[in-house]
């Protein structure tokens, strides 16, 4: 029986005796609301987190910014992943470097030019050989800031802010001078995030995001596993109270 006697019901048993039923603490299905830090978008299909950085940086600086947050410039494994990216409404508050209805982001591909004779010929490559299996973009639109000497151009994915265009998946691929400044899209593996939005390393105990601050779980492959819940005793001398959503067994008494 739980120590918290929330509800007592009286029923007549056989022989007229009164049978009392006490509600007990029952384990509830656990739902974790986020597997990414604040500001990142989670996609179940790749168990990855995505974030657009709207401050304009050239391609090489964007690469370093993504690496500092344990990620890389995004590459895509399938059409479904790309459609997920195109459907998101990325924040627009910060300064942007293109028209607000059209957003361009550096992503993790480079276009290698092999022939400049009559028209530019070349092929896409994944910028970093360590990337997992990915699909390569179609032929690009060439940017306006191209240099005659550059043999490598960098990929920008253009998507649209208008909801109807977003949800139809309209987009374009640009091969642009790598030293142009642009917003960029980082991708990282999903991770364990605790209730206070801290990232948790593999194998450590933590309280996951959700609505139970009394859970303690182990972080395994970015998922909370082997969770144990603490049960709290009712606060003494208090009839009405509110549980703290972030601290286990901490209450605010609401009595007059």
UniProtKB/TrEMBL annotation:
GO cellular component: membrane
UniProt signal peptide: none
Domain C-type lectin: 45-187
Taxonomic superkingdom: Eukaryota
Name of the protein: IDD protein
Organism: Pelecanoides urinatrix
Upper lineage: Eukaryota, Metazoa, Chordata, Craniata, Vertebrata
